[in-house]
Amino acid sequence: MCKLNYCDILALMKNFDITTQRLHNQKLSTTTFKNPADVVGWLGAVQSQDYAGAKWALGQRIKNTTDDAIEQAFNAGSILRTHVMRPTWHFVKPEDIRWMLTLTAPRILTQSATYFRKLELDTATFKRSNAVLTKALKGGKQLTRAELTSALKQNGIASDDLLRFTYLIIYAELNGVICSGARRGKQFTYALLDERAPHTRTLERDEALAELAKRYFVSHGPATLQDFVWWSGLTVTDARKGLDSIRSNLNSEVESGQTYWFADSVSTQAPTPTAYLLPNYDEYTVGYTDRSAIYDTQHNQKLDSRGNFLFNNVVVLNGQVVGTWKRTLTKSEVVIEFVLFSKLTKIENRAIADAAERYGKFLGLSVSFA
Asked: Is residue 10 predicted with pLDDT exceeding 60?
């Protein structure tokens, strides 16, 4: 990776624009990607507990794709969905899943110890549970939550309590026993990781720290060390070690007392106005601990009852969150309702309407507005 030359650095320092750089590096303002696996690999991992929203997050970073195409890629296993960071569901590439789990799982398991005790989940129970899940799924079987709950109960492992079942599943995911299978209709299934992603690579710990740091700062930069700590779930010590190992291949800029790290940069802004309808938990919003560059908290009162803009689908205009949106699906159309934080110009509203049309095209539906 080549560093910028001295003249490039001076030009960037003169016009350092965090949002322009992030839109570019996150492949929202420009992309050459043609499939979901390439996007997931570029970003490192993509938060995906809202499955429909996460598919749209990928869709905006791929040229001319559809919801059906991403669904097919997921069902085929070219992207997997598992608990790997913080912890929550993420899309990851099969090639990356083992070294990422090896790096992040121990900390997540330590942080979950209190819940394990409350739910009366000990090492012996987890060992039995993993054995039951392995036996139930062996031979290419892909089973739903209800089917796995039944298998656990038949083997004397209490799993009627949803939270207890969830932690049994998370433990198996973090230990590399299971991961996502193909969807069965609208139901999610689980499969054995050894069968879904056989012979995938592992990395030594220092290599894994460097690789995760590289993925993050190349795709999410400009970002701070604290941003990387939040996104990865690593300790500050480990996150700094990862950053230090790739520091010579990155550029940096100090803004408002914070050091931002990044690889590639773009010297000119995208044409304005440019709008995006981002789903909740999109990497553009959730990938940083400090979101002041893109969102003004004075708008919190205009959010839904949860009061956190990460839980909302957001309207981004010229890099800034300017409102929220909701969708209602019918057989033939998607109805979109906006809550905008302030009055916009006619051309800005047109840009947002164009973004909505792109979403409708992704779903294969016509668009109307509530």
From this structure: no
Assigned domain for 360 exists: yes
3-state DSSP of 11-22: HHHHCCCHHHHH
Distance between start and end Cα atoms, the chain:
47
CA 6 to CA 221: how far, in whole Å?
Answer: 19
Task: Locate 300 and state its tokens.
Answer: 């919190």
pLDDT in tens, 254-311: 998 999 999 977 766 667 799 999 999 999 999 999 999 999 988 888 887 566 878 8
Backbone angles phi, psi at 338, to 5 degrees: -105, 145
In this prediction, residue 13 carries a pLDDT of 37
Q: Can you give the pTM of this predicted structure?
A: 0.92
CB proximity list for 20: less than 8 A, separation 6 or greater: 29, 266, 269, 270, 319
In angstroms, the CA 331 to CA 42 distance is 34
Domain of 352?
A: 275-369
Query: Does residue 143 lie in a domain region?
Result: no
Residue 287 lies in a domain: yes
pLDDT of residue 270: 64
In a domain, 355, yes or no: yes
Per the structure, the count of domains in the chain is: 1
Long-range contacts of 116-123 (CB under 8 A, 24+ apart): 116/167, 119/161, 119/163, 119/164, 119/167, 121/164, 121/167, 121/168, 121/171
* Phi, then psi, of 20 in degrees rounded to 5: -60, -45
